[in-house]
Design a protein that fits this description.
Layout (H helix, E strand, L loop, with lengths): L2 H26 L5 H31 L1 E10 L2 E11 L6 H11 L4 H13 L2 H10 L4 H10 L3 H7 L4 H9 L6 H24 L7 H8 L19 H12 L8
Helix pairs in contact: 1-2, 2-3, 3-4, 3-6, 4-9, 5-9, 6-7, 9-10, 9-11
């Protein structure tokens, strides 16, 4: 280990020491022993691991109707483990909920992602209303931007959302507001609309609707007097206009 790494490690340990001592005192009281400090350190790590698990499944709470908490298992004064606990609520998740969650997880290929966007486009209106009222998970913006191959900040700006607000809600695992959710869902539905149009043309193989939409939105269009469709995506009325324009595109324009 280099001198720099050693100094950095010692500095980190020194910064954690007060916290560990406080936790150890809660466990044993009085003077802090090395054993108590080890227990406190284990407790901190167990809690961090549980928080990581909780963060990983937070989207399921919003889209799949699940509630979760953290259980820390202690034997005597020894921390033996911690885990995030999921409890299924009575509300069943809709196909739209599941599509949103799969997109957030980003563990599906292009074909599966295309199907999820198509699901968003063809979802029952009441499903969309219910999702917007509950709030789309803030992490969905990052996942959608990744699918569109654009920075999250650019997507947020196009939708008229404040990046700082989106980031704060993502860190605290809070859903977007109804207005924010409506705009984000509108973008996902536009991608699904283009995907559905290409599928109906009979030549969807290799077509990436998400990246195509990201590029098309930035092109000035004569139908908009030279304005870019992206300039209209921050209002419901603008999104409907862009959707109408997309519906009139010819198949040959997709290439």
């Amino acid at each position: 280990m280099s001198k720099h790494e050693s100094a950095s490690s010692e500095a980190g340990a020194a910064a954690r020491a007060p916290v560990l001592r406080k936790q150890a005192k809660k466990l044993g009281g009085g003077k802090v022993t090395s054993r108590q400090q080890a227990i406190a350190s284990g407790l901190s790590e167990a809690r961090r691991e549980a928080e990581r698990q909780k963060k990983a499944i937070e989207a399921e709470q919003r889209t799949g109707g699940r509630k979760q908490g953290i259980t820390i298992r202690v034997h005597g004064r020894k921390v033996v483990g911690a885990e995030a606990v999921i409890v299924r609520s009575e509300r069943k998740s809709s196909p739209l909920d599941e599509a949103i969650f799969r997109t957030i997880r980003s563990k599906v290929g292009m074909r599966e992602a295309a199907a999820d966007f198509t699901t968003a486009y063809r979802a029952d209106p009441m499903e969309r209303v219910e999702l917007v009222k509950r709030g789309v998970p803030a992490d969905f913006i990052q996942a959608l931007a990744k699918r569109m191959s654009i920075p999250k900040e650019r997507l947020a700006g196009t939708l008229g959302l404040a990046s700082a607000t989106v980031n704060r809600k993502s860190r605290s695992n809070k859903p977007l507001s109804r207005d924010e959710s409506s705009r984000v869902l509108g973008m996902a539905r536009l991608v699904g609309q283009i995907q559905a149009m290409v599928e109906e043309s009979g030549s969807p193989d290799g077509f990436d609707a998400a990246t195509w939409v990201a590029q098309w939105l930035e092109k000035p269009l004569p139908a908009l007097d030279g304005r870019r469709p992206a300039e209209l995506m921050d209002t419901p009325e603008g999104q409907r206009l862009v959707s109408d324009l997309a519906a009139r595109l010819q198949t040959g324009a997709y290439a």
